[in-house]
Amino acid sequence: MGDNTVLTCPLKPNITLVTWKISPKLGGHCTLGYRTDRNETNRTSCSDSINWKCRADVNTSLEIRQVGIAQEGNYTCEVVSTEGNFHKMYHLTVLVPPRPRLYCDAQGTPVCEAAAGMPAAHISWVVGDNSHPEEEGHDNGTVTVLSRFTACSTNMTTTTCMVFHPAGNWSESIAC
Predict the structure, then answer these.
(1) Domain 5-92: which topology?
(2) Going by C-beta distance under 8 Å and a sequence separation of 6 or more, which residues neighbour residue 99?
(3) Strands 122-125 and 159-164, how do they pair?
(4) Domain coordinates of the chain in residue numbers?
(5) Strand, helix or coil at 14?
(6) pLDDT tens digit string along 20-55?
């Protein structure tokens, strides 16, 4: 999320046509094309953040600037050359790191929260408990996960929450 990414196309000699077909999970399809015989590029319904890495006649790679949730989806490159037709497909998954937080609620119970992550984070406690995490989905595809520590034993003074996510892990301890 927020980074730039480059998707490469098969480089072959004597390329006559290169086409990128983009099918995002949200929104409409987009295509970028380049014909070598006319030195002509064409684009249909692509946002400004999706473009050739360099000039199409120099580099067939696709660059996505400031990757966001809207760019998640399938990206297919088709190359036509004298050697034949070649395809390369990518599935772009956008990771949104959650905002972790550990606090004590009004009853003095430790609460661990991983807000607005994509995909949903996994929360666990260092000492086993029988809590059941709650998930709340948001309109933009992110998920907030909340877990209240419910230990069987009450003679603990400090509790540690761990948040696991593909974009990075986090842990913190608290005494309520």
Answers:
(1) Immunoglobulin-like (2.60.40)
(2) 114, 115, 116, 117
(3) antiparallel
(4) 5-92, 99-174
(5) coil
(6) 999 998 888 999 999 999 999 999 998 888 999 887
